[in-house]
Design brief:
about 475 residues, alpha+beta, Cytochrome p450, four-stranded mixed sheet, three-stranded antiparallel sheet, about 10% strand, Cytochrome P450 family protein
């Protein structure tokens, strides 16, 4: 009897789910394919690179289309015009992130920059933006240039020994050092044998672990019925995030004992002066910066290396331009040289187009129902912006699968290239990231010729968790 009741209930659930997922909200819904009961269109994203799966759907349904991810109604946007209309012209309606049980569990709230909503987000953004004004960014320039020279000296140890090197760990530490210094005046040693601070070793481990599990958790969140399982799982992996937050709280109290209101040393000082005794918010914001700031920049630099090894003619043109710009008397490229090295700048832009670190920008949610570009978007809709597709669409780019920096020389393609998103909730550290990328990449080109260890091209396959990165590779840094 109970089996029969359960069977009828399950059949009813299947039928109800199928009907509800495939009925129209309006006569002007975005196009999309039929959805399966319960799971929706989740099988269409079963590959290892969901942004490419979504790009394949785009070929059939257009640059704005609908699907169901489990029980979550979702619209995918690969149209830069629609993207700007949403994120700039209608920012208020699309400013928030969707509800995330993992974010809420790890942060104990939505009290940090990535997941905060409404007035909380405005407060967080204002607080953090104060640390990234043009005046403050000028003080970061010397830090970036100094850390870049430390990076070059580490790489020269390998070039002088003619050793092959997998640069992933070194580049990650370089990016992490810049954001660590800016946030809390700390630094990690490049050589593990020299690292005497166990907190710094643990931090690297926690960052790696958090990114490792994020993709798995994000996928499960499409099924609210699985929330108990997610919470159970988070009890085990949340310890990394909690320890990370506790470490930032430890540094908060260290800062508090030597805080000078007239001379803030770093972002933590600046936030403390604004937030008073709010240790939780300061610690969570610090974790946000350390997670996002280190991973995105380091992955882009690694992609830059892959691109130069696989395109030696690009490398040759870049070194000629740099030497012409700085002359023979200098052995360092400064940020002030950027204006005189347009090809070098174009290489970095092409790297970000070809290999976007955030191929699917963090999702948004519609606060109210709205009609945009003749499409009806219901309240509570999850929105994904397919940055990867925008950078690989033949409508916007000639030969998009060919690495060609010259496409950015006379045309910035600003309307199509959105590696940092757009609108008021774009990447708050964009200018800092661009300064770091230019200084690091230009000085690598100045000092080394990058060569494959076996004479073959490096793999350009993308690995994806919440960001993209290249497969591990070994290269030779040959002194110039």
């Amino acid at each position: 009897m109970w089996i029969s009741i359960f069977g009828y209930f399950f059949l009813f659930l299947i039928i109800y789910s199928f009907i509800s997922k495939n009925k129209s909200f309006s006569k002007i819904d975005p196009p999309g394919k039929w959805s399966l009961p319960i799971i929706g269109n989740i099988l269409d994203l079963a590959g290892s690179l969901p942004f490419r799966d979504l790009m394949n759907l785009e070929k059939k349904y257009g640059k704005v289309y609908r699907l169901w991810l489990g029980s979550v109604y979702t619209i995918v946007v690969s149209d830069p015009v629609m993207t700007r209309d949403m994120l700039i012209n209608n920012h208020e309606n699309f400013m928030n992130r969707p509800k995330s049980i993992s974010w809420e569990t790890m942060s104990k709230s939505n009290n940090e920059l990535l997941a905060s909503k409404d007035e909380d987000w405005y407060h967080c953004r204002k607080l953090v933006s104060n640390a990234f004004t043009k005046t403050r960014l000028k003080t970061h320039i010397s830090l970036i240039e100094k850390e870049t020279q430390s990076l070059i000296q580490v790489l020269k140890k390998y070039s002088n020994s003619n050793l092959m090197l997998n640069p992933k760990t070194i580049i990650h530490k370089f990016s992490l050092n810049i954001i660590l210094t800016i946030v809390m005046s700390k630094k990690i040693q490049y050589d593990d044998l020299d690292e005497v601070d166990p907190d710094m070793k643990n931090m690297i481990h926690w960052i790696d672990r958090i990114f490792e599990v994020s993709k798995f958790i994000i996928g499960l969140e499409s099924f609210p019925i699985l929330n108990p399982f997610i919470l159970f799982y988070l009890k085990y992996i949340n310890t990394d995030h909690a320890k990370f937050v506790d470490l930032c709280k430890k540094y908060y109290y260290e800062h508090l004992t030597s805080l000078d209101p007239d001379s803030p040393r770093d972002l933590m000082d600046t936030m403390m002066l604004s937030e008073g005794e709010s240790v939780d918010r300061v610690a969570l914001l610090a974790v946000d910066f350390l997670l996002v700031g280190s991973d995105t920049s380091s992955s882009t630099i690694l992609w830059f290396m892959v691109a130069l090894v696989n395109n030696p003619e690009v490398q040759d043109r870049a070194i000629k331009e740099i030497k012409n710009a700085i002359g023979v008397d200098r052995d360092q490229v400064l940020l002030s040289d950027r204006i005189n090295t347009p090809y070098m700048v174009a290489i970095i832009k092409e790297v970000m187009r070809m290999y976007p670190v955030a191929p699917l920008s963090l999702p948004r949610e519609s606060r109210e129902s709205i009609v945009l570009q003749d499409y009806y978007i219901p309240k509570g809709t999850k929105i994904f912006f397919n940055t990867y597709s925008m950078g690989h669409n033949v409508e916007y780019w000639k030969n998009p699968e060919v690495f060609d920096p010259t496409r950015f020389i006379n045309d910035n393609h600003v309307e199509y290239n959105l590696p940092f998103s757009t609108g008021p909730r774009n990447c708050v550290g964009m200018n800092l990231a661009l300064d770091e990328l230019y200084t690091a990449c230009a000085n690598i080109v100045l000092n080394f010729k990058l060569l494959s260890s076996n004479g073959r091209s490096l793999s350009e396959d993308l690995l994806f968790n919440t960001t993209t990165r290249p497969k591990d590779f070994n290269i030779i840094f040959e002194n110039r």
